[in-house]
Design brief:
This protein is of the alpha+beta class. About 65% of the residues lie in helices and about 10% in strands. It folds into two domains: about 200 residues, no CATH class; about 140 residues, Heat Shock Protein 90, CATH 3.30.565. The protein starts with a helix and ends in a 15-residue tail after the last strand. Keywords: Kinase, Membrane, Transferase, Transmembrane, Transmembrane helix, Two-component regulatory system.
């Protein structure tokens, strides 16, 4: 049996899935505790032969059966609370009928009410079983319906207790205790499920925020292109129409108009290249500030350790390293579960060194032919090309991109770029993905 496989699967899941899994299994563990409560009610009655073996078997087996029903109930009520399916009314009614049947059977075969101590065992099993069911059912119902279901369940519980001969005051006390237990359990269950729902909503909000940021950047780029091309294209259309009319009349001015059209088209092409180049350029200080803000918004502590002022670096060096910071921050957000990210900048031997390190490397399930440890050595999506594109960009400017060995669970990328770049190299542009 591969013991490490569940660990790898756990580390490969995201925070919302982990939170929901913890909530789900905490609910299961509480449901499984119901037979333990029944055994505690038995106490020392079995050893003193104060209760029949039949009553013991019915109580224990019935409690286990009711606990299994509550576990099955949690499997459908939690998705209903999270809004993934309709409210499981049928499941709730079936589990309630089973709980009442188990408690009533224990009351029938158990000791009858009287002045002796063992008489309190059977009514206790009935009220505890109903209390666990009411708490479990509250997770799949709206608060008003949960309250109505609780009142109906307590009313049905009172019937066998009164038929068994308990006094009305004793029945009232048992029902009050059962109601308080169900209320406490229901509040606890709904609070845990609410936490899971909030985590899912935060994850969805984070995805929405990323999509809005991309949409806003596209809008800005389209607006800049419209401003640059709108007037020039209109002028080209008008002058082309004028040249057509002049050519039909045999006027020599048509050639002058087409020459002007050619000049405007070349000017438009130059302006478009400037817009695209400005859009694709990256300022190191701006990228570091933006990465720090985005990481902090994602609850990732960002540490900056600069021994060199980014503003003092050459413009081309800033642009290349700015893309390194942007790609590294993107990988931290998309492909890790980091709690800390450090960005370091220094100069050494005529070169500038940029390091980005995070502690959120996720393990992926091992596949055939893959690393037997199941750990992604890059910390990024195997299908992506971000690091490869950065390595090609740095190599074009005489630099290098390395992924040195780091501590377990951490990922570090190191970019090295000479300060004196060849003047003939063009300004960096974003690599094609």
């Amino acid at each position: 049996m591969d013991v490490a496989r569940p660990v790898r699967r756990w580390r490969a899941t995201g925070k919302p899935q982990r939170t929901e899994l913890l909530v789900r299994w905490s609910l299961y563990s509480v449901a499984v505790a119901q037979p333990l409560v029944t055994l505690s009610l038995l106490g020392g009655l079995v050893g003193r032969n104060e209760i029949s073996p039949l009553a013991v078997r019915v109580a224990v087996f019935g409690s286990v059966l009711a606990a299994a029903a509550n576990v099955a109930l949690f499997r459908v009520t939690l998705p209903a609370y999270l809004g993934r399916r309709a409210r499981p009314t049928g499941w709730i009614c079936a589990a309630g009928a089973l709980a009442l049947a188990v408690g009533t059977a224990t009351l029938v075969v158990g000791p009858h009410p009287g002045p002796d101590g063992p008489a309190a065992f059977s009514p206790g099993v009935l009220t505890v079983t109903v209390s666990f069911w009411l708490a479990s059912a509250s997770l799949g119902l709206a608060p008003a319906r949960a309250a109505a279901t609780g009142l109906a369940g307590l009313a049905l519980t009172a019937v066998p207790l009164l038929v068994a001969g308990l006094s009305p005051f004793a029945v009232l006390g048992l029902l009050i205790g059962s109601a308080l237990g169900a209320l406490l359990g229901g509040v606890t269950y709904r609070s845990s499920a609410w936490m899971a729902r909030v985590v899912w909503e935060l994850d969805a909000a984070r995805e929405t925020q990323a999509r809005l940021a991309v949409a806003e950047e596209r809008l800005r780029f389209s607006r800049d292109l419209h401003d640059v091309l709108g007037r020039n294209l209109t002028t080209i259309a008008l002058k082309s129409e004028l040249a057509v009319q002049l050519a039909r009349r045999g006027r020599p001015e048509a050639a002058d108009q087409m020459t002007e059209v050619q000049r405007i088209a070349q000017e438009s092409h130059r302006e478009v290249r400037e817009v695209v180049r400005g859009y694709r350029s990256a300022d190191l200080q701006a990228e570091v500030t933006g990465a720090r803000a985005v990481l902090r918004a994602a609850d990732v502590a960002c540490e900056l350790a600069f021994t060199t002022d980014p503003a003092a670096l050459p413009v081309t060096v800033q642009s290349v390293l700015g893309w390194v910071v942007r790609e590294a921050a993107t990988n931290v957000l998309r492909h890790s579960e980091a709690a800390r990210c450090a960005i370091r900048l220094r100069t050494a031997d005529g070169a500038v060194v940029l390091e980005v390190e995070n502690d959120g490397v996720r393990a992926v399930p091992a596949q055939r032919g893959a690393d037997p440890t199941g750990t992604d050595p890059t910390g990024a999506d195997p299908g992506g090309s971000g690091l490869a594109g950065l390595r090609e960009r740095l190599c074009a400017y005489g630099g290098a991109l390395d992924v040195p060995a780091a501590d377990p669970g951490t990922f570090k990328v190191t970019a090295t770029l000479p300060l004196a770049l060849p003047p003939a190299l063009p300004a960096p542009e974003v690599p094609t993905r």
